[in-house]
């Protein structure tokens, strides 16, 4: 037993770190360090830099562009990228629909979509949730009716992240309304340019518009865009959600935020001295650091065990990662709020090119929105309460 | 990175677990606790036979030269079986001090007898005013010809009432809270001037309050530097904390298993109570707390031997915080989910809860170590 990285893993980490330092454009790094979301262009630019290096989709099978790295190396790669900090590759493509396509899709679908996902030539979004189907996802109602060689889709999806940029959406649709809940669902790939699709933005409490409603009105989808078998979509969705939870701990993101907290708490004054010298603040911070260190090791334990599991079967312990990972993302954004203190107050959605000076420094203006925004992380990807149901059933056997 | 045990480690784990399964069920433990001795001579002999009592000692001292992972394996199994024997006191604390600070002659005189099960040790260090500060020592040792004379009071000496040999910390220089000026002395537990008052502890083990009145020891009784023992005390306590973290993981695992079993079998409202979501979520929270604690127990095991003291201290304190908090949480939830029977002395879970509660207080509780971890600059060097 040895929790340290091997010499080979250390050398790999150094190689990756050096590459990120040299290849990540300064503008992108600066925006992310200040707490901004990456722009659409940031995500595309970075994904293409990775793809040129052959590192766009490390976790995929080698024949589709994977690197063949061990789970530990993949984890190192992901964490170094989060700490760089570089934009996270668009998960809807590389981590969600990509693995579904190479695992369950037809040869034609693999050839058509996978290279374009790796190079982000197609921007994907996820059509799962509906107004009446959140945690109870299987109660979804969006209907796809087979008519000759097309499916005609009618219904509505919601919370569709970054659909405003999307070229494609992967959808769970009901193909057999007579079957019991999970049994009548199919997994369909839909071109966002198809007539009958309307995207309406939803403004969230941080002031941003990253999520949308997507309406389908007699949208005709070629039958060849069905993934796998009709009415087996729920199995593919479970596979996808299991994969999603593994990456969802986002330990590197929280570590990078701890760095930022320490940096800013050394500047912000409290009681006539830097906040970082305040005993109570330091203990609050240390408590979060301890939990984060524990989560990092828990994550590594899951990663190390991954090589020994049947492929495509995520560890039920990944629910632990989702719960703790989301709690710590929230705890770190909350600590940043504590750092900025009263200057969390101004709501300053400063637009570039505006005439007036912004009220706050750039780094300060992102803090409250980021705190508000991060309340989502314990809700999406299966809310933390759903994760506890999964633990109770799949791990504890209750 | 590798979380696997070697074949030898797996063998050790299997043999310790088998021995405890055969000889240390809850009824057997009750009898040992009721004996008032704090240990069973038969069990202690089986520990010796399995090589556990010399596990970390060098081969020339009858040991196995094993590392922190082996100690973790043994302590986790002990936690699962709620072992009350003074293993920590004898092998990790007493043995650790002799191993790290003793001369070759002192090691040869003491460690082989410990490994053979013929001698039990205890570390007489804590004092009433010191709370958790390891450097707060008022007991004094004065030069007396070739030797030393020791006067003072020691408390909460784990295994102190049945130990054959005490390792006593005493101040040879400086004021009571100085880091410099502390020495370690090997004292025969029956030496003139040593008065021991033994008592049972909340968790079924035993400890002693010890008074030392003009206790005279020879020059050869000093372990290491008579004024510079604090670093070795800190190091051994760090090893003890890592061991306790492993023990706590075993006990927490046992608490969760017992709770899940109870949720599956206890019927109310015509259904097993494990069908209720409010209770399922408590059990799920227990699992999360256990996994986080297990990770930090591994971290403590790995870092207990780290060269950099700041890094080591932050890691050990961080682990003690996580384990202390998880232990309290899991213990409390386990009682709640067992309901009334959890409150009874007769049922096992209450004893797991009590041991977990005491582990948090040993060598510094979560609040104490949170302050230390913060002072050391935290655990994330991003």
UniProtKB/TrEMBL annotation, chain A:
Per UniProt, residues of the Acyl-CoA dehydrogenase/oxidase C-terminal domain are 231-396
SUPFAM superfamilies, per database record: Acyl-CoA dehydrogenase C-terminal domain-like, Acyl-CoA dehydrogenase NM domain-like
Q: What Gene3D superfamilies does the entry give? A: Acyl-CoA dehydrogenase/oxidase, N-terminal domain, Butyryl-CoA Dehydrogenase, subunit A, domain 2, Butyryl-CoA Dehydrogenase, subunit A, domain 3
Please provide the record's keywords in A-Z order.
FAD, Flavoprotein, Oxidoreductase
The record's GO CC annotations read:
plasma membrane
The record, for Pfam families, names: Acyl-CoA_dh_1 (PF00441), Acyl-CoA_dh_M (PF02770), Acyl-CoA_dh_N (PF02771)
GO MF term set: flavin adenine dinucleotide binding; oxidoreductase activity, acting on the CH-CH group of donors
Q: Which cofactor does it need?
A: FAD
Keyword Ribosomal protein appears in the UniProt entry: no
- InterPro entries in UniProt: Acyl-CoA_Oxase/DH_mid-dom, Acyl-CoA_Oxase/DH_mid-dom_sf, AcylCo_DH-like_C, AcylCo_DH/oxidase_C, AcylCoA_DH/ox_N, AcylCoA_DH/ox_N_sf, AcylCoA_DH/oxidase_NM_dom_sf, Mycobact_Acyl-CoA_DH
Q: Which residues form the Acyl-CoA dehydrogenase/oxidase N-terminal domain?
A: 6-119
rRNA-binding keyword on record:
no
Which residue range or ranges hold the Acyl-CoA oxidase/dehydrogenase middle domain? 125-219
In terms of superkingdom, the source organism counts as: Bacteria
The text of the family note is:
Belongs to the acyl-CoA dehydrogenase family.
Cited NCBIfam families = pimC_large
Indicate what this protein is called per its UniProt record. Answer: Pimeloyl-CoA dehydrogenase large subunit
Native species: Alsobacter soli
TrEMBL record, chain B:
Q: Which residues form the signal peptide?
A: none
Ranges in a coiled coil: none
Q: Please report the stretch or stretches of sequence annotated as the Acyl-CoA oxidase/dehydrogenase middle domain.
A: 122-215
What are the recorded GO MF terms, alphabetically? acyl-CoA dehydrogenase activity; flavin adenine dinucleotide binding
In Swiss-Prot or TrEMBL terms, this protein is called: Pimeloyl-CoA dehydrogenase small subunit
Taxonomic superkingdom? Bacteria
Q: Which cofactor does it need?
A: FAD
- Annotated Acyl-CoA dehydrogenase/oxidase N-terminal domain residues: 6-118
**Where is the Acyl-CoA dehydrogenase/oxidase C-terminal domain positioned along the sequence?**
242-376
Task: Spell out the Pfam families in the cross-references.
Answer: Acyl-CoA_dh_1 (PF00441), Acyl-CoA_dh_M (PF02770), Acyl-CoA_dh_N (PF02771)
Species for this entry: Alsobacter soli
Going by the UniProt record, its keywords in alphabetical order are: FAD, Flavoprotein, Oxidoreductase
Which PANTHER family does the protein's record reference?
A: ACYL-COA DEHYDROGENASE (PTHR43884), ACYL-COA DEHYDROGENASE FADE28 (PTHR43884:SF20)
Which family would the database say this protein is a member of? Belongs to the acyl-CoA dehydrogenase family.
């Amino acid at each position: 037993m040895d929790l340290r990285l091997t010499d080979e893993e250390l050398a790999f980490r150094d190689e990756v770190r050096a590459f990120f330092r040299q290849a990540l454009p300064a503008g992108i790094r600066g925006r992310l360090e200040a707490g901004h979301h990456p722009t659409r262009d940031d995500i595309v630019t970075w994904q293409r830099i990775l793809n040129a290096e052959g590192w766009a989709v490390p976790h995929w099978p080698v024949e589709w562009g994977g690197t063949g790295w061990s789970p530990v190396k993949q984890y190192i790669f992901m964490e170094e990228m989060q700490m760089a900090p570089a934009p996270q590759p668009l998960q809807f493509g590389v981590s969600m629909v990509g693995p579904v396509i190479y695992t369950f899709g037809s040869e034609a679908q693999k050839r058509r979509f996978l290279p374009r996902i790796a190079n982000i030539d197609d921007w994907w979004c996820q059509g799962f949730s509906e107004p009446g189907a959140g945690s109870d996802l299987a109660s979804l109602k969006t209907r796809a009716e087979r008519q000759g060689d097309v499916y005609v889709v009618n219904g509505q999806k919601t919370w569709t992240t970054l659909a405003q940029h999307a070229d494609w959406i992967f959808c769970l649709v009901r193909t057999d309304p007579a079957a019991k809940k999970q049994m009548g669902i199919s997994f369909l790939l839909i071109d966002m340019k198809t007539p009958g699709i309307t995207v309406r933005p939803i403004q969230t409490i941080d002031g941003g518009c990253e999520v949308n409603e997507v309406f389908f009105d007699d949208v005709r989808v070629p039958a060849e865009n069905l993934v796998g078998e009709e009415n087996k979509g729920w199995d593919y969705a479970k596979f996808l959600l299991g994969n999603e939870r593994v990456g969802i701990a986002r330990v590197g993101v929280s570590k990078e935020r701890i760095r930022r907290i320490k940096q800013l708490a050394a500047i912000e004054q409290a009681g006539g001295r830097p906040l970082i010298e305040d005993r109570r603040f330091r203990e609050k911070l240390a408590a979060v650091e301890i939990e984060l260190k524990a989560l990092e090791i828990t994550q590594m334990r899951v990663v190390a065990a991954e090589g020994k599991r049947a492929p495509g079967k995520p560890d039920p312990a990944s629910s632990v990662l989702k719960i703790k990972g989301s709690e710590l993302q929230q705890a770190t954004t909350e600590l940043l709020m504590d750092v900025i203190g009263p200057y969390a107050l101004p709501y300053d959605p400063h637009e570039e090119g505006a005439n007036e000076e912004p009220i706050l420094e750039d780094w300060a203006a992102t803090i409250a929105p980021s705190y508000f925004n991060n309340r989502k992380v314990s809700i999406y990807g299966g809310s933390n309460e759903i994760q506890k149901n999964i633990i109770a059933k799949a791990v504890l056997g209750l | 990175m590798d979380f696997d045990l070697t074949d030898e480690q797996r063998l050790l784990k299997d043999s310790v677990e088998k021995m405890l399964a055969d000889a240390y069920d809850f009824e057997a433990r009750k009898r040992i606790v009721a004996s008032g001795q704090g240990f069973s001579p038969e069990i202690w002999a089986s520990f010796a036979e399995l090589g556990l009592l010399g596990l970390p000692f060098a081969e020339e001292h009858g040991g196995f030269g094993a590392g922190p992972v082996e100690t973790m394996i043994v302590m986790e199994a002990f936690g699962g079986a709620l072992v009350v024997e003074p293993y920590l006191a004898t092998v990790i604390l007493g043995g650790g001090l002799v191993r790290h600070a003793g001369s070759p002659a002192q090691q040869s005189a003491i460690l082989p007898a410990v490994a053979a099960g013929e001698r039990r040790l205890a570390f007489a260090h804590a004092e009433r005013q010191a709370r958790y500060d390891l450097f707060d020592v008022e007991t004094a040792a004065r030069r007396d010809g070739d030797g030393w004379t020791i006067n003072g009071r020691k408390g909460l000496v784990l295994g102190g009432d049945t130990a054959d040999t005490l390792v006593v910390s005493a101040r040879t220089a400086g004021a009571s809270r100085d880091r410099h000026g502390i020495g370690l002395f090997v004292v025969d537990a029956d030496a003139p001037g040593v008065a021991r008052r033994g008592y049972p502890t909340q968790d079924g083990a035993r400890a002693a309050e010890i008074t030392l009145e003009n206790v005279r020891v020879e020059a050869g009784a000093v372990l290491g530097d008579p004024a510079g023992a604090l670093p070795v005390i800190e190091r051994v306590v760090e090893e003890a904390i890592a061991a306790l973290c492993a023990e706590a993981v075993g006990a927490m695992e046992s608490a969760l298993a017992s709770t899940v079993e109870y949720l599956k079998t206890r019927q109310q409202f015509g259904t097993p109570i494990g069908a209720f979501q409010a209770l399922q979520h408590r059990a799920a929270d227990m699992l999360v707390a256990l996994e986080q604690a297990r990770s930090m127990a591994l971290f403590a095991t790995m870092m207990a031997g780290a060269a950099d003291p700041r890094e080591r201290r932050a890691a050990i304190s961080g682990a003690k915080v996580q384990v202390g908090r998880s232990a309290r949480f899991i213990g409390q939830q386990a009682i709640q989910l067992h309901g009334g029977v959890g409150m009874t002395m007769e049922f096992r879970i209450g004893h797991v809860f009590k041991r977990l509660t005491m582990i948090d207080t040993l060598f510094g509780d979560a609040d104490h170590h949170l302050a230390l971890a913060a002072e050391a600059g935290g655990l994330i060097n991003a």
